[in-house]
Amino acid sequence: MATPKNTICLWYDKDAEAAARFYAKTFPNSTVGAVSVAPGDNPSGKAGDVLTVEFTVFGIPCLGLNGGSAFKQSEAFSFQIATDDQAETDRYWNAIVQNGGEESQCGWCRDKWGVSWQITPRALTDAMAAGGAEAKRAFDAMMTMGKIDVAAIEAARRG
User: Fold this and answer.
1) Which residues are CB-neighbours of 102 under 8 A, at least 6 positions away?
2) pLDDT by residue (tens digit) across 6-42?
């Protein structure tokens, strides 16, 4: 497989391969590709340690770099996963949170490696796209939530 022109590079302390395998197990159309080891000692590890891992999340090419503890993940970067219903929303949210992650607000959660995820039902994005009072009601409802409640968003949208 040819290297894509654009790849998302995610910095991990030392667990890029574990993270990639979790994502591949959790999300459809997600895979783990080449795992490269460090050819020599470096500031974040020893020769032979996993250095990079190629993987995809929902078909999006990514590279996990075991760069050490110098940099941390933040909400400035997140994967946004569009879901079709409450069951799909629950499945992804629960997979992330129950695997050592943590809940946040407004559909955001963080996995145990610090990567942020927006688990966003299409019902919410459709409500926001409607604009006006309908969007405002849905937005106000969302602001009170951790994991998005699709029925509550749809009820707010109707008024």
Assistant:
1) 109, 110
2) 999 999 999 999 999 999 999 999 999 999 999 999 9
pTM for the full predicted model: 0.94
Describe the strand order of the beta sheet including 108-110 as a list of residue ranges: 78-83, 116-121, 108-110, 102-103
Topology given in CATH for the domain delimited by 78-159: 2,3-Dihydroxybiphenyl 1,2-Dioxygenase; domain 1 (3.10.180)
CATH number given to 7-69 = 3.10.180.10
Which neighbouring-strand residues pair with 55? 32, 62
Around Cβ 14, how many Cβ atoms within 10 Å? 15
Q: Where are the beta strands (DSSP E) in the chain?
A: 8-12, 32-37, 50-57, 60-66, 78-83, 102-103, 108-110, 116-121
CB within 8 A of 142, min separation 6: which ones?
106, 107, 124, 148, 153
